[in-house]
Amino acid sequence: MEPANKLGQRLQILPDLKSLIIHLKYLFSVVLFAEFIRGKKAQKSQMGKSGSKPETSSGELDNPWRTFNWREKKELKKRLENFHLSNPEVSHVRILVAGQIGAGKSSFINSVCSAFQGEIVCEALADTSQSASSHSFTERMKVYRIRSGDADLPFEMCDVKGLEPEKISMALPEDIVNIIYGHVRDGYKFSKDKTLPKEDDHYNETPSLSDQAFCLVYVLAGDTLHLHADDNILFEKLRFIRQSISDNGIPQVIVMTKVDEACPLVKNDLKKVYLSKKIKEKMELCSLKLGVPMSNIFPVKNYSEEIDTDDNVDVLILKAFDQIVRFADGRLRRGASTKNS
């Protein structure tokens, strides 16, 4: 048998071993918890770097910054088809579409026509080649009547030559002002160096209400809109037009095209256009540069490569056009406008 003194020593060691085991278990649990916390922090850091959070990397806002009903296409179309002008003596109201070269002025007119017709329409010839970004494809003033099915609607859209960014003469901006006041007849070919003289056959000395434009739409491309020097020259020309017509209260609207090319988020899902921080910032830039309020700026996607219409594209186009028509009719209600000499 083991001596009593040795057995006592062993029994005395047992509590110390139990205490050590308890301490070891505690330390092990602390180490495991620390590793867990460290892993969570690393995971969050990696998420921030890899772009897993859409609100930080893709520029998607938590909430839409503008309320928009994506299901009102039929309602908008019906309302426009049944629209009656405030002046019964006028058969149609004219809307002038101007803006930078390559922005899609003619394509916007075609997109409006397509939304009403339910099929891709090519009324206004448009150029999508690389040269479209440096020279205007539209050389003559052309007026297009908007139709739905076989019926003429009381709206006309006037297409003009695009404004080029080079600092050249102000002949085209002056021609645009004359068109707004109805002094330029359909078919006029624009000159790079001089404005339309009064002696020309295309000059209209006594324009009627139907000859005048009662809303000016600036078409700007969202994918190329920056604070570059060329953009400043473009905005300078647009401001000249704006200042020349503001005294007569001509409503002015900005249609920002190519939103899908301007923002990857929107390219993947057009319905996220009002969740895009980038699109909102570009619209704010337009508002700041031209003085047009945000409520008068509309982001759209024109039809370009599609062979069938799309409800989401149509509803953005029709919403913009509905507001444009209402602005124009509101100004028509006040009567003719006269160019200041």
Summarize the SSE layout with pairings.
Elements lengths: L3 H47 L3 H4 L15 H9 L11 E7 L5 H13 L24 E7 L2 E9 L11 H10 L32 E9 L7 H17 L6 E6 L1 H4 L1 H5 L8 H14 L6 E3 L11 H22 L9
Parallel strand pairs: 1-3, 1-4, 4-5, 5-6
Antiparallel strand pairs: 2-3
| Global outline | globular
| Percentage of residues assigned to helices | 40-55%
Tally of separate helices: 10
Percentage of residues in DSSP E strands: 5-15%
Mean pLDDT across the residues is 82
Order of helices and strands: HHHEHEEHEHEHHHEH
Compute the gyration radius: what is it? 32 Å
Task: Pick out the low-confidence regions.
Answer: 29-34, 43-56, 130-134
Strands of the widest sheet, in order across it, are: 2-3-1-4-5-6
Entry summary:
This protein has helices at 4-50, 54-57, 73-81, 105-117, 171-180, 229-245, 259-262, 264-268, 277-290, 311-332; strands at 93-99, 142-148, 151-159, 213-221, 252-257, 297-299. It has 341 residues and is an alpha/beta fold.
Structure notes:
- The protein is an alpha/beta fold and 341 residues long.
- It is built from 10 helices and 6 strands.
- It has a 6-stranded mixed beta sheet with strand order 2-3-1-4-5-6, sandwiched between helices.
- Helix 3 (73-81) runs parallel beside helix 10 (311-332), helix 4 crosses helix 10 (311-332) and helix 5 (171-180) packs parallel to helix 6 (229-245).
- The longest helix is centred in the first third of the chain and has 47 residues, at 4-50.
- The termini are far apart.
- Residues 29-34, 43-56 and 130-134 have low confidence and may be disordered.
